[in-house]
Automatic annotation (TrEMBL):
Protein name from the UniProt record: Uncharacterized protein
Superkingdom, taxonomy of origin: Bacteria
Length: 65
């Protein structure tokens, strides 16, 4: 039996997916400054930008095809 905790469970973020979604919503790739304005940190942008670009490209190809 589980006991109730006063705090809800942590929800993990898929930062690369979030970055790709922002780019998809705008219809174009975003720059470093754009991501900074959206609230991403330098470390997040550097770490996840390649993965976000790949996600964005896959979604753009599906939309065209």
């Amino acid at each position: 039996m589980q006991t109730q905790t006063p705090y809800p469970a942590a929800i993990g973020r898929n930062i690369a997916n979030e970055m790709a979604e922002h780019a998809r919503e705008r219809g174009e790739g975003l720059t470093f400054k754009d991501y900074k304005r959206l609230g991403f940190t330098d470390a997040q942008i550097i770490r996840y930008s390649d993965e976000a670009a790949a996600i964005y490209a896959r979604r753009a190809m599906r939309r065209v095809a």
